[in-house]
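In this section we walk through a basic example: taking a raw amino acid sequence and producing a predicted 3D structure, encoded as discrete structure tokens. The instruction is simple. Fold the sequence below.
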Amino acid sequence: MSSEKVLVVEDEEDILELLQYNLKKAGYDVRGVTSGEKALKAVRESIPDLLLLDLMLPGLDGIEVCRMLREAPKTTELPIVMLTARGEEQDIVRGLEAGADDYVTKPFSSRILLARIAAVLRRRQSPQLSEGDLLRVHDLVIDPGRHKVFYGEEAIDLTSSEFRLLHYLSRKPGWVFTRDQIVVAVHGHDYPVTDRSVDVMVVGLRKKMGEAGDWIETVRGVGYRMKE
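The resulting token sequence is shown next.
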């Protein structure tokens, strides 16, 4: 049984009650709110271990809430699972672009939802990255132990998924990785994500890296690699 704190943000009362019931039954310490504004207030009062965030909310929507939390130093690494009634690719991409760690579409299976939440918490609490020596590639310094990346003297602020992607590619410069391999390395097995979502994550990473982003090369029809 778990004791992690989960904040659920869902404006439909019946769905909120169902989510709270299943999470409490699984052993989580659960709190529920019905709007983006209330979610930000609740997080300011007490940062949860994970945020289960509906995409479509009245007023401040889930995308904006996610972005605001990612921009705040205290919550930049807060695990966020996006919940959406839409299964369309563009909505999934928007959630991942905003910094969500995972997503679940409605209608959802409670077992799958709980498995996704547990997987995100495991990745954050027990990262599968070596915390030994610093990894240096080109002018980048990657510190797995502190989850930090430096380009020269400048720190690059990355989400957990972006960090895992960069670390994965940087361990074998010149080696080409398929999109499927990248998904497994970043999110784990059985993660239903589209090729487009992987491409968007790479685009976001390159943008944050500035001119250093050119070292991440696209291999048409295959995937990506870190330049040798």
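Looking at the output, two observations stand out. DSSP finds eight helices and twelve strands in the chain. The longest helix spans residues 110-125. In the next section we compare this with other chains.
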